[in-house]
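Q: Joint fold for the lines below.
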Amino acid sequence: MKLLRSLAFLSLFVFSACSSTVRIEKPVVDQAPPPVAAKGDTDSVEDKVTQLNKETRKKERELSYASASRGTSGLERQLRTMTCEAEVHSAELALVKAQTDLEQHLKETAPRELEEHRMRLDQQTYRAEEAKDELAELESMYEADEFAKATKELVIKRGRRQMEMADRGLAIARREFVEFESHTMPQQERELRQKLADAERAREKARLEIDKMRLEQELAARQEDDRTNDLQEEANELRQKLEKAMREATGTKEKAITEAAK
Amino acid sequence: MSARFAVAAALAFGVAVVPCVRGQEDGRIVQEKAKAAAVLPSAADPSVEAARAGTDRALAFLVATQNQDGSWGSHSADSQFDAGFATETYYCFQMGAHCLAVLALRRAPETQERRAALDKGVRWLVTTALPMRGSNWDNDAVWAWLYGTVAATELQGDPRFQSDEWRAPVVQRGKEFVHWLERNQVPGGGFGYYDDPTFSRRPKWATSFSTSAVLPALGVAMQLGWCSDPDTAERASSYIRRCRLPSGAYEYDLNPIPRVHGGEEINNVRGSLGRIQVSNWALHQFGDKDTTVDRIRTGVEQFFEHHRFLAVARMRPVPHEAYYANAGYFFYFGHFYCSQTIELLPEAEREGFHVQLREKLLLTQRRDGSFCDFQGTSYMTTSSTAFAAMALLAGL
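A: Joint structure:
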């Protein structure tokens, strides 16, 4: 039984020595230490081999995880890049829209709306004038004779009220126009300019975000590379130590067998 | 206001939805005919003989459809299209149409049947209850008073109605019609059939054509001493004159300052074809010096030049739905007064216009001799037939 265990350990050693140049090593097979021909020195050497074997396996696992993590991090960096680029694109579109809205307002909407309000005011003005003219015409027409005085008064009263309503409507129309020209329109322009400034800031922020993201990604990639390289070196060192310990164990064992044969 | 009066005027003299028969065409067909007038032969014979035959058939229709009591038509709404007026209004329509039928029979060459129908019709006219205003806004009784005045002033001068049996009742009824007209003359001098808020006993809205329809008769009534106010007719004349526009058209109703917006509106000549005739006829008859023969001739020429706008409106069931707000019931009203204005022209000019008028009228006569331009109610059929018969008679 002890002989079988020693042969297995030997074969593992040969395998490990051959594969030491591979960056990602297969974990060392978990096997029992080689048989010791004699107690004392033989036991301490085997213990050392066992310990190194354990450490090597652990380091190789860490190296394997670090390598896998680098793949995931690459995808994450790609996703974040796409997100930041999309944000910059959206911010640029929003900026163009804000610029267009402001230009459209200044060139077309504001002058047209002002003209519409001016027309309404003119219509109201003319309506008031016409109501006054019609009342005067009606009164003049009715002055001709004394016929139907009571009914005429009803018509005249209606005409006076129409004129009064037209005058009051005109007063309101004038106030509405002043409000539109001096308050509503400037307010609309201020709001559009504010939207434009906000859009410019949003685009600048998005651009800074993408710069920051690129620096962070570069740093993270370097850190991951360094970490992997460090693990790789540490694993190599452990393998070398294990190889050396196994050679020592083999020598001790052969020496013990020789002495036993004598 | 124009939209509302549109509905009202229509109802006074109109038509029905009736099957199309030989010699009758709906507005669409007439419009198509108008487009192709240069190449399509006329369906109607415009000769004097054809007109006489058409007149005889129209009068025969009136004789045949007279009610036992001497009236024509119904005093109730004959059509759902007519619903919405005051109950009294349908009686007003009946009496207005009745007066026109009496006038047609009175003007026609006498026959035994026609004379009998005329006597019965006059008897009913002078004995039936006088129509009154139906509601605050609906004063269609004016139509009965208008044509009642026209009929009474003609009858009082007719030798056949000078006996004691007829004279006093005719004069009495004539005075009643004039009395109610005077009470309903609007402050501006015209006569109308609706009122506006604030509603008043004396209404405030009138139209040029309803005022014109009665003006000559009012002049006669004045001479007969039937008017209590010597200025009634002069005020009416003044109202019509103020409705006149530079184009020759007459405003539908008088506005202190005429509102002519341009485009397809009723106060365009094309929307005023009937009003031009009735107003020129009325003012000329009343002695208005501005309504010259030249002005009348121009109006008649305008009537035939733009006749397609009347033709396309005939039988359309919605008032004022045709171009330039023409309504179906403008048709025979306009043709009748056109025949009257033609008679005011020099004799040598008349026949040429009468030929055109006969052709357009006979083209629309139904197989039973009747005419109709709106909705087909009994009062519209009676009034249309009477108008058409009188228009044809004028050229014979």
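Q: Anything notable?
A: Chain B has a mean pLDDT of 90. Residues 87-107 of chain B form the longest helix (21 residues).
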